[in-house]
Specification:
Helices cover about 35% and strands about 20% of the residues. By secondary structure, it is of the alpha/beta class. The chain has one domain (about 5-219). The longest helix is centred in the N-terminal third of the chain and has 14 residues, at about 5-15. The radius of gyration is 16 Å and the shape is globular.
C-alpha cells in the first residue's frame, strides 16, 4: 500500500472526528532536515512525501473557530509555533477540542516501518515533552482544568515489524502525568492486520474513535 495515500486516509478519517489539519501549516510547511537531525537519519524517511500529503488534504480542514468553546485565551502565533515544534517529530499533526468536555487532543502520525527498535521509547518521550508545552491551551470548565491528551499513531505495513511491536510491547510505553491530567498514548495502526490498537484505560471515543478509524481505513 502507498504510504502517502494511507496517511491521507488517516487524516481524512480524523477530520471526520473533528480534528483540524490547518492550512497555514500545509502551505507554510518546509522540509528542515537539518533542524530535525536525528543521528539515525530517520528524519529523512519521515519527511519524504509530506508535500504530496499536504496538497491532497488542502481545503479539507475543520474550522477551529466553529466550536462553541471560547478560544480567546489562545495566542494564534504562539500556538502555531508550538505546533511547528511538534512537527520536528512528524509533519502529520492534527488537533481538536472535544465538544462535550473541552479536552484538548493532539494526534500525530509516524511511519513505524522506518523506526528502529531502540527508537520507539525515545520518540514517545520526546512527543510527551513537547505535548507539555500545550498546557497553556487547556480550558477551565466549571472551574475544572480539562485534560490534555497526546495520541501517537505508529503505522505499520510490514508483518515483521508488527511482530516486533508486539514483542517489544510498545503500546505499554505511554506516559501519564496523572496530577496534571496530561496523557501520552501510543497507538499502532497495523495495515497487515487491519487493526488499530492501544493499551490502557478505555478512553472516551470522543478523543479518537478507533472503530470508526478502522472502518474508514480498512472496510
Amino acid at each position: 500500500m502507498d504510504k502517502d495515500e494511507f496517511y491521507i486516509k488517516i487524516i481524512n478519517s480524523l477530520l471526520k472526528q473533528g480534528f483540524i489539519f490547518d492550512e497555514e501549516a500545509i502551505y507554510g510547511y518546509k522540509y528542515n532536515v537539518e533542524k530535525y537531525n536525528r543521528s539515525t537519519g530517520t528524519a529523512i524517511d519521515i519527511l519524504q512525501g509530506a508535500g504530496a500529503v499536504f496538497s491532497a488534504i488542502a481545503g479539507q480542514k475543520a474550522q477551529f473557530t466553529s466550536s462553541k468553546i471560547d478560544m480567546s485565551h489562545i495566542d494564534g502565533e504562539e500556538f502555531m509555533e508550538d505546533i511547528e515544534n511538534m512537527r520536528l517529530i512528524t509533519p502529520y499533526i492534527v488537533y481538536k477540542y472535544t465538544n462535550s468536555e473541552g479536552h484538548f487532543v493532539l494526534a500525530s502520525i509516524i511511519d513505524g516501518d522506518s523506526i528502529r527498535t531502540h527508537e520507539y521509547k525515545s520518540i514517545i518521550k520526546e512527543f510527551d515533552s513537547k505535548l507539555l508545552n500545550f498546557n497553556k491551551y487547556r480550558l477551565y470548565v466549571s472551574g475544572i482544568k480539562k485534560g490534555l491528551y497526546g495520541k501517537l499513531l505508529f503505522t505499520i505495513s510490514d508483518e515483521g515489524k508488527s511482530i516486533e511491536y508486539l514483542k517489544k510491547n510498545i503500546l505499554a510505553h505511554g506516559v501519564s502525568h496523572f496530577w496534571k491530567a496530561v496523557y501520552t498514548t501510543p497507538y499502532v495502526i497495523n495495515i497487515h492486520q487491519k487493526s488499530v490498537n492501544y493499551k490502557g484505560m478505555a478512553w472516551p471515543s470522543e478523543l479518537i474513535d478507533c472503530k470508526k478509524l478502522e472502518k474508514d481505513l480498512f472496510y
